[in-house]
Amino acid sequence: MKTEINQRQVFFRLMKYAKPYWKSILFAFFLLLLTTAGEVLGPILVKMFIDDYLTPRTFPVGPITALAVAYLTIHIAKVVVSYFQLLKFQEIALNIIQQLRIDVFSKVQSLGMRYFDRTPAGSIVSRITNDTEAIKEMFVEVLVNFIQSGFFLIGVFVAMFSLNVKLALFCTFILPIIFLIIRTYRKYSSVFYSDLRERLSQLNAKLNESLQGMAIIQVFRQQQRLRNEFAQINEKHYKAGIRNIKLDSLLLRPATDVVYVFSLILVLSYFGISSLNSPVEIGVLYAFINYLDRFFEPVNQMMMRLSMFQQAIVASSRVFNLLDEKEHEPKQGEANIEIEAGEIEFRNVYFSYDGKRDVLKNISFKVKPGETIALVGHTGSGKSSIIHLLMRFYEFDRGDILIDGRSIKEYPKAELRKKIGLVLQDPFLFFGTIRDNIRLHNKEMTEEEIIRAAQFIQAHSFIEKLLGQYDHQVVERGTTFSSGQRQLIAFARTIATNPKILLLDEATANIDTETEEAIQLALEKMRKGRTTIAIAHRLSTIQDADQILVLHQGEIVERGNHQQLLAKRGLYYKMYLLQNGLVEDVEHIQHR
């Protein structure tokens, strides 16, 4: 019962997407009514010909010609009207699915990073593509058929009652039996189709993971393992599909065919018994059997499409679960506040990704405008987490982060994105041109600003050598460029926005030494008047930082400039000796 209620709620929610098109839907229903009327009138005209002219063997030319013309006209008109009716319903369905896909895609854009941390990308893709496609099939195929069949069934029953009330009443007992079959099918198919959609989602997730990591798969010869894992998921998808096929084979067409045969026996028995007492009109017999056949044809169509309906309802439930996802980006203020100086302060900040283990513990530091602070530490010490919190990818648990003396929560998201520039260790390039990747479709950015940004970061020289220069095509993720070239384009993209605050997450790691020296000179110019936070593994790149924070297991264990930290002979000193190849000195310190 609960499943039926949930399905009903999902269905009505889905129907809300049809509300903006109610005028078109009414027009389509009117055309559908005309088509149904044509279907119902056909057997009545044939009945009139058989009983009034064929049986008495009277063939007046005028009336028979009129009947023939009426019959042909009705059928031709039905074909024409049916074309426009189907076209209109298809148009409505495609508009609804278009809006639904936009809503789902927009929702994905607003979700917080925690959601993407726990949800495979392939699963999200499956909901936006496969699940919405299943919903489209429901609007295009199922609802049109259900509504058309509903209209036609009403017309058939009206015609049956007009021919023989008693026999029509007998035929109404068919309806509860069909309803019972439908209810039983829906009860079990909803479970089976949920499993089938989930297996399809897992297939997409595994496929996406394999495509993204193809280089690693081939290098480490993991093809067989991935093939086996994919085959296991595919086998589960196959078994889920087989369960659905068995259910369809039992409760769809075969079950209704059995009911049809018993109904036909009932009708023929009635007319056979009636013929013992009084003559039976052949036309009435023909019309009744014809209507009975036409009654079960839409029922069979509905039953066959019930499978698609169940798939669509399950798919809709998955899509709405995504639309109802509560893991949004951290909330931001709506007041018109601007970042002016760019002073940053962390006050006793605690943060956890999973809500159980703190990855940042009591983080406190201050960076004044124009200063550069560097974050160093071993992998997993919490350096990138500080950047993530400052970019508002995640909400911190306790403490506060201030910019210009105001909590970061008070600033509008647009202001943070505009005034904070971020360059990651693994830069992401979009499909398009180099110009598009630097500008990011900011129409206010001029050609001169794009070139100036590239020149500033030493990227202009290699871009000029490319075919098309700034119009050179960038393939997906920029895989045709070297790591250093991708990083330079990402640098130019950030510098072009002229941010107040600059965040560098190991931004020079993939750049050769010669280019890195040129970029360091450019960064020195950039840092003037800007607040800069840089994560670095190579300590040689941050020796001129105003302050260096050394993190260990989520805590700041040392702070000071390069010379001060070396003088402390602590963790920073050990890291420095290791990077300079002075391993024996490190071992001597550890023994002491």
From TrEMBL:
<keyword id="KW-0813">Transport</keyword>
<dbReference type="InterPro" id="IPR003439">
    <property type="entry name" value="ABC_transporter-like_ATP-bd"/>
</dbReference>
<keyword id="KW-0472">Membrane</keyword>
<dbReference type="GO" id="GO:0015421">
    <property type="term" value="F:ABC-type oligopeptide transporter activity"/>
</dbReference>
<dbReference type="Pfam" id="PF00005">
    <property type="entry name" value="ABC_tran"/>
</dbReference>
<feature type="transmembrane region" description="Helical">
    <location>
        <begin position="250"/>
        <end position="273"/>
    </location>
</feature>
<dbReference type="InterPro" id="IPR027417">
    <property type="entry name" value="P-loop_NTPase"/>
</dbReference>
<feature type="domain" description="ABC transmembrane type-1">
    <location>
        <begin position="26"/>
        <end position="311"/>
    </location>
</feature>
<dbReference type="GO" id="GO:0005524">
    <property type="term" value="F:ATP binding"/>
</dbReference>
<dbReference type="GO" id="GO:0016887">
    <property type="term" value="F:ATP hydrolysis activity"/>
</dbReference>
<dbReference type="GO" id="GO:0005886">
    <property type="term" value="C:plasma membrane"/>
</dbReference>
<keyword id="KW-0812">Transmembrane</keyword>
<protein>
    <submittedName>
        <fullName>ATP-binding cassette subfamily B protein</fullName>
    </submittedName>
</protein>
<keyword id="KW-0547">Nucleotide-binding</keyword>
<keyword id="KW-0067">ATP-binding</keyword>
<feature type="transmembrane region" description="Helical">
    <location>
        <begin position="142"/>
        <end position="161"/>
    </location>
</feature>
<dbReference type="InterPro" id="IPR011527">
    <property type="entry name" value="ABC1_TM_dom"/>
</dbReference>
<dbReference type="InterPro" id="IPR039421">
    <property type="entry name" value="Type_1_exporter"/>
</dbReference>
<dbReference type="Pfam" id="PF00664">
    <property type="entry name" value="ABC_membrane"/>
</dbReference>
<dbReference type="InterPro" id="IPR036640">
    <property type="entry name" value="ABC1_TM_sf"/>
</dbReference>
<dbReference type="InterPro" id="IPR017871">
    <property type="entry name" value="ABC_transporter-like_CS"/>
</dbReference>
<feature type="transmembrane region" description="Helical">
    <location>
        <begin position="62"/>
        <end position="84"/>
    </location>
</feature>
<dbReference type="InterPro" id="IPR003593">
    <property type="entry name" value="AAA+_ATPase"/>
</dbReference>
<feature type="domain" description="ABC transporter">
    <location>
        <begin position="344"/>
        <end position="578"/>
    </location>
</feature>
<keyword id="KW-1133">Transmembrane helix</keyword>
<feature type="transmembrane region" description="Helical">
    <location>
        <begin position="167"/>
        <end position="185"/>
    </location>
</feature>
